[in-house]
Design goal:
One of its GO terms (cellular component) is cytoplasm. It is an enzyme of class 2 (transferase). This protein is α/β, with parallel strands linked by helices and 210 residues long. It contains nine helices and eight strands. The protein has an eight-stranded parallel beta barrel with strand order 1-2-3-4-5-6-7-8, surrounded by five helices.
Length: 210
């Protein structure tokens, strides 16, 4: 079993110039496996601008830079992959669009069926969640989904949704490969450096208990 790793989500709204130093602090605080740029209700040009400013920071740390929702811009702008909701876009089209070299992640919420189909159709990883309260949806995924996936499939799984240093341990114990975290880092009272360190400490403590 590989140790659980940290997958950072950006806030859904940000000024890339102001966010850049916060991102650098987060990435310098400890090992991060991937950063997903997740912008809502902005123009293509604003997404391109954010990619141009933030992608080099992430890739210079030898970390994967993933773009949410827009595989076309991910390919165009030199990202390492894209993350989609399979309900929005046929996964076969996205896989063809990205080619074989870029990563493809798929949101599967609390659905075993969607997850299995995503894996069969070319996803490089899937996400389950939210596991904790989220303002984006009323869905609440059960922790045993992670255990089931870990036992059934080799494709990596990411746990997402309201995850903090205080509540993440059951997800790590259940076998998730990654914890997808946003607010617990960017809204941490000690800043993003302390936010990352707190999550990584909780992961390490749980890994030591396995």
């Amino acid at each position: 079993m590989n140790p659980c790793e940290l997958y950072l989500l950006t806030p859904p709204s940000l000024d890339p110039f102001k966010f850049k130093p916060l991102l650098i602090k987060a990435l310098d605080a400890g090992p991060v496996a991937a950063v997903q740029l997740r912008l809502k209700d902005v123009s293509d040009d604003e997404i391109r601008k954010a990619i141009d400013i933030l992608r080099p920071v992430v890739q210079d740390h030898d970390i994967a830079f993933i773009l949410n929702d827009r595989p076309d811009l991910a390919k165009e702008c030199g990202c390492d992959g894209a993350h989609i909701d399979m309900a929005d876009t046929p996964i076969e089209l996205v896989r063809a669009q990205l080619g074989d070299d870029l990563q493809l992640g798929v949101s599967c919420y609390d659905s075993r069926d969607i997850a299995m189909k995503a894996g069969e159709k070319g996803a490089d990883y899937i996400t389950f969640g939210p596991f904790f309260p989220s303002k984006d949806t009323n869905i609440r995924a059960p922790v045993d989904l992670l255990s089931w996936w870990f036992e059934m499939m080799e494709i990596p799984v990411v746990a997402t949704g309201g995850i903090t240093a205080e509540n993440c341990k059951p997800l790590v114990k259940a076998g998730t490969d990654f914890l997808s975290v946003s607010g617990a880092v960017w809204n941490h009272t000690g800043g993003p450096t302390q936010g990352v360190k707190s999550i990584l400490k909780a992961i390490q403590e749980t890994e030591n208990e396995k």
